[in-house]
Amino acid sequence: MATGPAAKSSRTVVIAGVPDGLLHNDVMADILTIHFQKSKNNGGDVEEVTYPTSKKGVAFVTFEDQEVVESVLKKDEHRLEDKRLSRYYPLKVTRYCENVFSSVTSVLNMSIFKDQFVLEDLIQELKKKSTALSFGPLQSNGHISVQGSFPAIKLLRDFLLLKAKSLSEEDKKGESQSHQRPRRRLQQHRLTRETSNSVHGADGEKQVVVLDTDTYHYMKYIFPRIFVVNGDVVVSDITDGDITTVYIENAGSRSDAGQVLRVKEKIENQSIKLHEILRKEKIYLGEHTRDERRRYKLACKSLKPYYPSVLIIPYDTHIDVIGNAQDIFDFTKDVNRKVQSLLQHR
């Protein structure tokens, strides 16, 4: 729905490359407005320009019609030109929050395949199969870094798990004739532990779910009851960068694999819903003074009660703001306004 709660964020683009410090902020906002209203720039009616923002040289432009966003993004090159500027400035225009959880990094241990495959050939096969992923160099220890969307990385993990399982089944057949290859079962177990998004214990009482770390943090913050279960089920987690592995297992006196499975399905279903709607915006602090950083953190803390569905994760160099697109759009805009107001009244 165009008039729904996410309408404004869907009508907004992010502008990078805005010349910083040359003109008064209001003048630069006016120049941006003129640029994105011109038909030669595929523009249209501008509802609002947010400038400055927490990151120098970046502005938000909100159009009255969502179709203008698509038109503006199709233009190959945007040049900011105005008689008040001494030269033109190239601008980079992207969709607001388009890369929220679309880029995570996972390290895969490919050494477990080295006895069966030439690892370089296997990596080439993976690259052809997973064109949406970016592969780093293969390390001497068999590790390789993979970057891309979380769903794409999960598909790759599933593919590798199936390949490992097929090798394990070949070993089982071979063991009836020979006992020379006992090592592969151990390797398959390691891959299962490291890469699968669903692992069944021998007794069917253990499950594993691999989640995007930001999604996991948001789930624990907004939906803590999902991870609070009775004494018969234990939920634990291990976080490794962008990936968090959640372990669900039965700890009660009576075995109930069905209960463990229900908890796993509840976590998976909620994570799928959140992956569709969650967005993340970074409030960058690296270019600001210590006092300005403090003001940004104070502004976030004071505004947080008005945004109960927004998760704030502060770091030394930036602040992650996670929530639905409209909430984080409004929140970051309010933070910028509050900080600018505080700086003007120093």
Describe the structure.
Helix content is 41%, strand content 23%. The protein is α+β, with helices and mostly antiparallel strands. Mean pLDDT is 80; it is low at 1-6 and 178-204.
Helix fraction by DSSP (H/I, runs of at least 4): 40-55%
- Strand content bin: 15-25%
Round the Cα radius of gyration to an integer and report it. Answer: 25 Å
Strand order of the largest sheet: 2-3-1-5-4
Count of separate DSSP helical elements: 10
- Measured distance between first and last alpha carbons: 43 Å
SS elements, strand count = 14
Average pLDDT score: 80
Topology as a string of helices (H) and strands (E): HEHEEHEEEHEEHHEHEEHEHEEH
- Unreliable stretches (pLDDT < 50, length at least 5) are 1-6, 178-204
Q: What is the general shape?
A: globular
Instruction: Outline the biggest β-sheet.
Output: 5 strands, antiparallel
Q: What are the key terms here?
A:
single chain, 346 residues, alpha+beta, 23% strand, globular, disordered N terminus, RRM_dom, RNA-binding, RBD_domain_sf, RNA binding
How would you concisely characterize the structure shown here?
With 346 residues, this protein is of the alpha+beta class. It has helices spanning 7-10, 25-37, 66-74, 119-129, 150-175, 183-195, 213-222, 257-277, 290-303, 325-344, and strands at 12-16, 46-50, 58-63, 78-80, 89-95, 104-109, 134-135, 143-148, 206-212, 233-240, 243-250, 278-284, 311-314, 318-324.
